[in-house]
Specification:
With about 425 residues, the protein is an alpha+beta fold. The chain has eight helices and 21 strands. The chain folds into two domains: about 300 residues, no CATH class; about 80 residues, no CATH class. About 0% of the residues have low confidence. Keywords: Membrane, Transmembrane, Transmembrane helix.
Length: about 425
């Protein structure tokens, strides 16, 4: 275990998500850069340089969101409606989360919350709103189906994350086990915008200005994560036709959560993780702000100490002498097999020169075919000293016919050269 010193803002500074003015949100370049980095999944880089060698895993405090004040409603759809082309299960056709048909199958809607709503007083901080609609008609024609709607407020919070660092200062958030981080506390540095709400249900003041933390994040994620697909009614021309999920207006988000049974998985944790990663990326970029401490809750600092479990990868080499022994045995066998074939072709510790004898032996001269190089010139004279040679037209040995003429010379079949050869191989002398 090692203690690592790193820089990470535990919550986003007030106004990081832009500023609301006159009903519109205005943001800086840094928040758009944060959103683009998240969309392209650019590696997150720590601005500090903790002394992590290999990989380090530990816990840090960072900004994120948590859901609160959730409401869930389920509309049961009787099995008789499976064949009813006029069946409906939703009356929200045009609302704050977009426009949907009366027969939605899967909906993801993210929106900034309406400060003029009567229930906004339940919140003490800025918030976003999440709408998720899930249709289940897997067994529509036998047991009926249902459509479940969940609405939640998403509020900024301080979370404890499991993170992993590498030697290049890259940081990744551990999401194993569907983890979205552990909530430490709600962030208290956001502005809920109460000054935009008039009492007695009057409309909000349109020219009020206030900082926002989630504003542009919510608008961005609302566009990227939006999903809306409907079910289509039974075709009267098809026998026993019933409601099914449309495959003509799918988008990537819809396909991500659809199962083979035409049901949908709950995307809430994925949406929260997207928010959390965006806010962590923003916290890394806000570390260098000169007024960061003043824009966070009292007592918070970007300087953190992470107790990390450090994992090092080392190359350990272990010799296996069985391979060496096998190679040695094989080499000895090869040497013993080749040695008899080369025996006599060399003499150890023998001086070589360019004498006629040495050249003849090196060039494998026919006259030296039976010579023993180990005996040298004396041995050559002893075995070939009485050999008679002539200079003239010589026929190659393999071309000789074996027949002799009246002078005792062997006849040939036609390959000729001029040179010195044994007398039987010289056809006629050359003057």
């Amino acid at each position: 275990m090692v203690d690592l010193q790193l820089s990470l803002a535990p919550e986003l500074p007030t106004g990081f998500g832009g500023e609301v003015h006159g009903g519109s949100i205005f943001g800086s370049d840094i928040i758009w850069e944060t959103c683009t980095d998240w969309l392209n999944q650019k590696q997150m880089l720590l601005p500090s340089h903790p002394s992590c060698k290999g990989f380090c895993a530990g816990k840090v405090i960072g900004p994120g969101i948590t859901k609160t004040n959730c409401t869930t409603q389920t509309r049961m759809i009787p099995k008789e409606d499976a064949y009813n082309p006029n069946a409906t299960w939703s009356n929200i056709t045009n609302g704050r989360f977009g426009s949907y048909g009366a027969n939605p199958a899967f909906v993801i809607g993210i929106s900034t919350y309406d400060r003029s709503r009567s229930d906004v007083s339940v919140l003490s901080s800025e918030a976003a709103m999440l709408y998720v609609g899930l249709l289940d008609i897997a067994d529509f024609d036998t047991s009926g189906g249902n459509y479940t709607v969940m609405e939640c407020y998403l509020v900024p919070a301080l979370l404890e994350y499991d993170v992993r660092l590498d030697g290049d200062n890259h940081v990744t958030i551990n999401t194993e086990g569907d983890s979205v981080g552990r909530v430490i506390s709600i962030a208290n540095n956001t502005d809920p915008g109460w000054d935009t709400v008039q009492k007695d249900g009057a409309p909000p003041v349109s020219n009020a200005s206030y900082p926002t933390t989630l504003g542009l994040f919510t608008i961005y994620l609302g566009a990227v994560l939006f999903a809306n697909v409907s079910a289509y009614p039974p075709d009267p021309n098809i026998l026993d036709g019933y409601w099914a999920v449309s495959t003509l207006d799918f988008n990537a988000q819809t396909m991500k959560y659809m199962t083979k049974d035409d049901t949908y998985l709950d995307p809430t944790n994925d949406i929260i993780r997207s928010y959390n990663e965006l806010m962590i990326r923003g916290a890394l970029k806000a570390v260098d702000w000169s007024n960061l401490t003043q824009l966070m809750d009292l007592g918070l600092s970007a300087n953190q100490t992470m107790l990390a479990n450090q994992t090092l990868t080392q190359n350990i080499f272990v010799s296996d002498y069985r391979w060496f022994a096998g190679a040695t045995v094989l080499e000895v066998i090869v040497v013993l097999a080749v040695l008899p074939m080369l025996w006599g072709w060399w003499t150890l510790d023998r001086d070589l020169d360019l004498s006629p004898f040495a050249l003849g032996m090196a060039l494998n001269a026919p006259l030296f075919r039976d010579a023993d190089p180990a005996e040298g010139v004396k041995g050559m004279l002893r075995t070939h000293g009485d050999t008679k040679v002539r200079y003239g037209v010589v026929v190659a040995e393999h071309d000789a016919t074996g027949e002799k003429d009246e002078l005792g010379r062997r006849a040939s079949s036609g390959t000729w050269r001029v040179g010195i050869g044994e007398s039987w191989g010289v056809v006629h002398l050359t003057k």
